[in-house]
Amino acid sequence: MNHSTKRLAVAPVAGAALLAGVLLTPGQASADNTLTSFNSSCQAKSIITVDKSVAVTMRVEAPSTVAVGDTFSYRIQPSGSSFPDKDSGATTTNLSRIKYDYEIPANSEFVSANIVPGTGINIDNVLPNVLRVNESGVVDSNGKILRLSGNNEVVGNSPTSSTNSEGGIRAPKLKKNLDGTPNADGESWFRLPDVMVTLKAVAPGVITPKLRTAGSAASYGNDQNFNTSLAKASLLGTQWAPTRCIPSDDKSTLNAGAGPLATITVTGPVNNSTTTTLTAPASATTGQAVTLSATVAPAAATGTVQFKDGDANLGAAVPLNNGTATLSQTFTTAGAHSITAVYSGDSKNQPSTSAASVVSVTAAIVDTTTTMNVPSTATTGQATDLWATVNAPGNVPAVGGTVQFKDGGTDIGGPIALASGGAKLTYTFNAAGAHAISAVYSGAEGFNPSTGAAATVTVSDPAPVELNTTTTLTVPPSATKGDAVAFTAEVKTEAGAAVTSGTVRFMDGGTPIGDAVTVVNGKATLQYTVGQTGNRVITAVYTGGTGYKGSTSSPSTLNVKDATTPGGGGGSFGLPGLPTGSLGK
After folding, report:
1. Dihedral angle, C-alpha 219, 224, 226, 228, nearest 10 °
2. 271-362: which CATH number, 2.60.40.10, 3.40.50.300, 3.30.420.10, 2.30.110.10?
3. Domain 469-568 adopts which CATH fold?
4. Which of 58, 93, 130, 154 could be 113's S-S partner, Cβ–Cβ 3.0 to 4.6 Å?
């Protein structure tokens, strides 16, 4: 039987140019350019172990449809990669022993695989080639893996592996971008060449090019990982860091990079129509495994069944066994899940899809613990932050629900929605004393309510504000012994306002004279009868009052003279009967 031959054009691609178009035979469907972007979790092991996530894009150019028996080609190209000038204190030297492993797709017969000339960028040492190897990395004409490397010189999973010597494909330290320009950050960019894979379609269905992720290749840090390399650096001597990468966001669960990088539909004569029947439970609980089962009629059908939740695949396709495929599925989100089973078809049986079955998934209910985090003290009239955190077992933050804060048995504020397992109330206390603050979590789907043990906040009134004052004394410059004189003190704030409380004590040197005088509208006046001659040093001492600090006037001198009487008689001050508190009494 003669079959048409369909190949992609293999013209060299320079720099980072896009893939060439497809050379198709008359009547063949057009080719598709498929880009698959994903994160690659990489582990580099040396004197320290470094884990990094690297963004990767795989481009596959392939015919969208071929017929059973057709020989066709698809072209696969990895995105550019780079390594830094320095990392983790070490200065990098180069990257060598670089390899990419691709799976030979199911439903195909391998014909050949070759490097597309001129498509590698910034690489040297051993010329890249494509070898067919088995699971052990040994060249094998029956192997299931296509290895892009430098003659199988890699870090592991090969008879010519090494973790402490350069070899294979090498990316030298050029500090250049893919277009040859200097890299401003000192990174060295490179790209492995494109690979042209030629296959023969075996049966109706699909052919899906993939990276190597089966078996041990899915385990983080394994030599069978699809992308491995050997970093060389200097830090207290030469350091070697074998690096291994899997398509994963979290170093364990495979992501889109482990799925089909393109889908090629294979058409051909199919004899039998099929019926796929799905069996699924009506309800399930998050975190608990349930069984999904699909039965394909006729029972002799071969191929696989892909279980789906809406448009998303649930795990990998499951091979039929006596017409039945089963999948253990653990749902992680609550809600209605529309489950279908898609049979791939084979050379004698058409593909088919089951009717959808709705699985109502409810969240598993767990206990919660509410913990208070409040300050030990607060001040009336000043805003204070009160926190409550709500966790499930294992310190997992609760999701959903509200928190009601309480002062004793009284609600304060309204219910606050839980966010990232926490709730905050900014509250202003208006009464001093001990306040027992607690919080009540309402609970939510999957989370039981809980109440936080009360925590005491001791609230006090703010200290009164006292203003600085100035006291000014007014006394007459002189007086006669036995005369009554007026001493006046004026007390003001720094801003010039009259004080409204407190008393003034007038002093003769260090001795009080008279009684303390109450300040009225900022003034205090004392009438005194002087009873002692000489220069008297008078001061006024303001003792302070509510809201005011005390102050003392500058001293003033009062000159007191003897009194004279007509005829030379000598009068006398300080005779019995003078007012109490007179000067010199």
Report:
1. 100
2. 2.60.40.10
3. Immunoglobulin-like (2.60.40)
4. 130
Half-sphere exposure of 231 (CA within 13 A, CB side): 29
Angle at 119 between CA 115 and CA 123, to 5 degrees: 95
List CB contacts of 443: < 8 A, sequence separation 6 or more: 368, 401, 449, 450
Q: Are 185 and 85 in contact (CB under 8 A)?
A: yes
Q: Which two tokens stand for residue 43?
A: 């582990």
CATH number of 5-265, picked from 3.20.20.140, 3.40.50.1360, 3.40.190.10, 2.60.40.2270: 2.60.40.2270
Is 369-460 in CATH node 2.60.40.10? yes
CB-count burial class (<10 Å; 0-12, 13-18, 19+) for 262: buried
DSSP SS3 for 195: strand
Tell me the C-alpha to C-alpha distance, in Å, between residue 22 and each of 62, 77, 151.
8, 15, 29
Strand ranges inside 49-190, DSSP E = 49-63, 65-67, 71-78, 81-83, 86-87, 90-103, 108-115, 124-125, 129-133, 145-149, 169-172, 188-190
**Quick one: tokens of 163?**
């973790």
Query: Which among 494, 350, 372 has a CA at the least distance from the CA of 424?
Result: 372
pLDDT value of residue 30: 52
Per-residue pLDDT tens digits for 370-391: 999 999 999 999 999 999 999 9
Whole-Å CA distances, 148 to 102, 110, 192, 196:
8, 16, 8, 11
> C-alpha distances in angstroms, 374 versus 187, 253, 333, 431, 438?
49, 40, 34, 17, 10
pLDDT digits (tens, 9 = 90+) for 308-362: 999 999 999 999 999 999 999 999 888 999 999 999 998 788 899 999 999 999 8
Domain boundaries defined on the chain: 5-265, 271-362, 369-460, 469-568
